[in-house]
Amino acid sequence: MLAQPAGPFALGTFSAADGVPFPGLLARERVLDLGGALDWAPSGLRAVLERWEETLPVLHSLADDDTLDWRPLDGLRVHAPLEPRQIFQSGANYRQHVIDLEVAHRSPDDPRTVEEARAEIAAIMDRRAAEDLPYVFIGLPSTVAGPYDDVVLPSWAKKPDWELELAAVIARPAYRVSVEEALEYVAGYTIANDLTDRATVFRRDMPAIGTDWLRCKNAPGFTPLGPWIVPAESIADPGDLRVTLKLNGETMQDESTKDMLFGVARLVSYISQSAQLLPGDLVLTGSPAGNGIHWGRLLRDGDVMEGSITGLGVQRTRCVEEKS
To answer: Does the keyword Hydrolase apply (predicted)?
Structure first.
């Protein structure tokens, strides 16, 4: 049984076995092909988001119409809900996560005790929040994979790690919007697992360059997405959701989005000051504490990750080694 989304309906991309994927409306464990149900026949879910304001009331009506050609969810393949044009990723956005990472990456020559190191980075995080400076970088759409697809671990990735995150899905073009109006540009929310190879995060050949996000985060399939998009109106408070990741049944991440330094509205507004957000774009809000680097246990062949966020469903992915 798949976990059902909050609210009366959700949106996703589905297919029959080996069939052509279609944009679908999920309601009460059944799916309606929006390609046939909407009179303008969208080719994909991104097209629905591009007409979000006019389509949302129609989706409500369709969800309540039992006379339509509904298909049982059971038996359909669930794909990544959409293909974004842009992915914006928030780094160092969970207070406890960054403290844990800083301690995990301490140099053996660091004279500080663990307690001193934690206190120092905690002060830095508090200062960042007070100065209102989010940290955002860009990911590639080619990393997106389905919520139940296998995750191929590249042979060069020596320390692959999980990072379950809340992802906001943009509804309409947003450029230089205020924090107060930013959530009006969010269509809904979904789950993203923003995988990272910890061994290649930092450039060792020239430390002054800093982080290498291309190398460590952008392998094909490194962003399992979904299972579906839940409309924003069905999520009472994106700043109060539980983010949980289990590895082979053992809970590794279990944190509230309350621990975010910068909430969805602040991130959307911040990004929009420099770049234009487009319908279907993803804003990943950062990973909470409990990554593999913290536990000293990185991903390997055969591992099964189960990620859930309150009201957004569950994704399950199995890790497989890249075949030579």
So the answer is: yes
